[in-house]
Amino acid sequence: MFIAVSRFTVANNTHDAVAEAFLQRPRLADDSEGFIRMEVWNPESDPKQFMLITWWKNAESFHSWHHSHNYRQSHQGIPKNLKLIPNTTRIEYYSFLCD
C-alpha cells in the first residue's frame, strides 16, 4: 500500500472555505484505479492547517491519478483567492508496513 500525505497552512483566512471545499469535493479520485480512501485532517489547535491523506494500492496508481485530467478537475472547487503560508506546503510518500 502507498500513502500520500499533503500538508499546507492557509495564509489569508480562507480556511473555512477550504474546509467546505473538501466537504463538498467531487469525489473524482474515488473511482480511480488503485484508490483506497482519502481523509482530510484539520487540527483544532490551528484550523488554518490541513493534512490530506490518500491511500493507494501502489505508487503507480497515485502518480497516474496525480497527472490525470480528473486530478485537475478535482481542484476546481478550491477557493480562487486561496493563499498558502510559504514553506508550509509539503508532500510526503509512505509505504504501509503493518497495523
UniProtKB/TrEMBL annotation:
Annotated GO MF terms: monooxygenase activity
What InterPro entries does this protein map onto?
A: ABM_dom, Dimeric_a/b-barrel, Heme-degrading_MO
The protein's superkingdom reads Bacteria
Coiled coil spans = none
- Signal sequence extent: none
Q: What Pfam families is this protein classified in?
A: ABM
Question: Where in this chain does the record put each ABM domain?
Answer: 2-91
Keyword Oxidoreductase attached:
yes
**Entry keyword set:** Monooxygenase, Oxidoreductase
Q: What PROSITE patterns is this protein classified in?
A: ABM
Q: Does the keyword Lipid metabolism apply?
A: no
Q: Which PANTHER family match?
A: SIGNAL TRANSDUCTION PROTEIN TRAP
Protein name, UniProt field: Antibiotic biosynthesis monooxygenase
